[in-house]
Specification:
Elements lengths: L8 H8 L7 E6 L2 H7 L5 H21 L4 E6 L3 H12 L1
Parallel strand pairs: 1-2
Length: 90
């Protein structure tokens, strides 16, 4: 979104199936309020739309590609985030 490049989700989903998939995919996200406190590049509603879009994408990809893990993590507390990543990989 920040790059102003807009590709349709159908287009990118179609091409994604040809890429090698990593074993683990992590999506670290936070509330729009927390993100805006760190950086003020996007508006709150844009952040919420993007977050929901990525959460839905991870859910869909996880159901489609069973050999890969698609793990969304609410990134509020660093230690909890790192523990979640570490336990997922073990």
């Amino acid at each position: 979104k920040r790059s102003n490049i807009s590709l349709s989700s159908k287009f990118t989903a179609w091409w994604y199936r040809f890429l090698m998939k990593p074993n683990f995919n992590f999506f670290l996200y936070a509330s729009a309020t927390e993100i805006l406190a760190r950086k003020k590049e996007l508006e709150a509603n844009t952040i919420e739309q993007l977050t929901n879009s990525y959460l839905n994408l991870f859910k869909k990809l996880g159901a489609t590609y069973k050999h890969s893990k698609y793990i969304p993590i609410y990134n509020k507390e660093l230690n909890l985030t790192l523990d979640t990543i570490e336990s997922s990989i073990k």
